[in-house]
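User: My collaborator and I are trying to settle a disagreement about how two of our proteins should look. Neither of us wants to argue from intuition anymore, so we agreed to look at predicted structures for both before our next call. Could you fold the first one, then the second, and keep them clearly separated?

Assistant: That sounds like a sensible way to settle it. I'll keep them separate. The first protein:
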Amino acid sequence: MAAQPVSRVVRRVLRAGVRSCSSGAPVTQPCPGEPVVEVPSRPRPFLREGAAPFSAFLIDSFGRRHSYLRISLTERCNLRCQYCMPEEGVPLTPKADLLTTEEILTLARLFVKEGVDKIRLTGGEPLIRPDVVDIVAQLRRLEGLRTIGITTNGINLARLLPQLQKAGLSAINISLDTLVPAKFEFIVRRKGFHKVMEGIHKAIELGYSPVKVNCVVMRGLNEDELLDFVALTEGLPLDVRFIEYMPFDGNKWNFKKMVSYKEMLDTLRQQWPELEKLPEEESSTAKAFKIPGFRGQVSFITSMSEHFCGTCNRLRITADGNLKVCLFGNSEVSLRDHLRAGASEEELLRVIGAAVGRKKRQHAGMFNISQMKNRPMILIESCLQSR
């Protein structure tokens, strides 16, 4: 489908202001009740003068401090995005095997106590979980937690955002891969484009800045809309984040569908040669740029062409309670099983520390990743990468 002229698309979008189940991934862990592998002794460095020491349990063998935790609240989703899951869906974990609200909060408290200062709630689609507002409110009470974010497809955002903001939600990422309503339905296999746009404008109305918009770029599908997305940042406080298409079970990835960061950047520079690169934030996954005079900015998530493993500070807990230390890794450890076996806080920390200590320097190369056995994306989190 050909993109419409920038001005026409942008005008239409602006008017529209009034869019992660048990898997086959191997679980590497000591069984509950059995001795836990001791964590190698690691120093307890300080983040800054006068600050509490950062936990050695969250520092890997390469010295990376993991201060950012992503928690999947559900495996369910009300969309069927092509890059995320097969059209028929995926087998879901039985409810009894998913983390309860109290288990989620118990793990969150433990990680924050050890040095995590940012938590992002993902899915599946986190906003279909009935107690999501209460979870945000409970997280807000954790001393030392500075940021509570959420990654959502935006379908329920306009309705829930006032409550979420009051509860303490401080950052929003919204998935939107096209500005053409018909193409939206093709990509996500559901209706809802105007609900997503309503959610974006509600976030702006409530003062979130920037509102991050995640766009997975796929050749032959939406790479012709790059300029349209960038044009939105002229008048709106958006951070449009172009994400390289990544392989996960069930999304039929192939190299020809991937549009690299450099190719996307070249396209933007042809239209806006004045595009300026912004300083990179510590541990950021994004390469950020801004057009002088525009309110917003654009970023690139370059997981495939230029990995950012060296500064990775992220850990993930899946909806069924497995700790993943790398998005692209297939090694997981079940924190749920240890919780339910009555593990003490110290025992949980040893399990976490051992997993973090095994984290590799970097993920596999682009072509090796495509052959790796991993969960479908929907069973890890709702959008491929979001800061």
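The second protein, kept apart from the first:
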Amino acid sequence: MKGQRYFILALVFALIVAILALVNDEPVQFNYVFGTQDWPLILVILGSAVFGGVVAVSLSLVKIIRLQSQIRQLQKNGASVPPSVEANKDNTTAAKKKEKELSSSENKNVGIKSRLNK
């Protein structure tokens, strides 16, 4: 579901960029390191969008690679579950036991109340 949302947002963004590019088709002077050149504005807009996408994907890949190396390192070191997680499991088990005790005592109370009302 989350992937579909990003895909739809990407399509909407691409549609907006395409509309802006089609509306702005007059030539503009593009300055780069080695000189200048007149290009249609549509190429400048689309080129900028593609360049931004490449930069975003590159930065995401760097983060993914870093996280994968951390995962491998933790697996190699035999990292275990932190004690706080174990404590939470124990608390959850204790809470479930208390809940069962309370529900059984409530059932007893209902039986006693029904006997008293007779």
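Some points you might bring to the call about the second protein. The CA atoms of residues 26 and 102 lie 76 Å apart. The chain has a mean pLDDT of 80.
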